[in-house]
Amino acid sequence: MKEEINRLKVILAEKNKTSKWLAEQLGRDQATVSKWCTNRVQPSLETLKSISELLGVELKDLLR
After folding, report:
1. What are the tens digits of pLDDT across the range 23-47?
2. What is the CATH number of the domain that holds 43?
3. 8 Å CB contact between 28 and 64
4. Count of structural domains, the chain
5. CB of 30 within 8 A of CB of 19?
6. Can you give the pLDDT at residue 1?
7. Contact 36/43 with Cβ under 8 angstroms?
8. Among the listed residues 15, 5, 4, the one whose alpha carbon sits nearest the alpha carbon of residue 44
9. Is the separation of the CB atoms in 19 and 34 below 8 Å?
């Protein structure tokens, strides 16, 4: 069982946003964002900062 490090999928749902929307905002591939949401791959700290700004949440709220 993989450890869930980020809460990206949960935060996106709370904000009524999709991974496709996030990928478009960041200029990233949707498959990459999907991997972040399923915790198969982790975004860089810099990317997490950008995500927190886009979603209007604290950086710490994206992490477990």
Report:
1. 999 999 999 999 999 999 999 999 9
2. 1.10.260.40
3. no
4. 1
5. yes
6. 59
7. yes
8. 5
9. yes
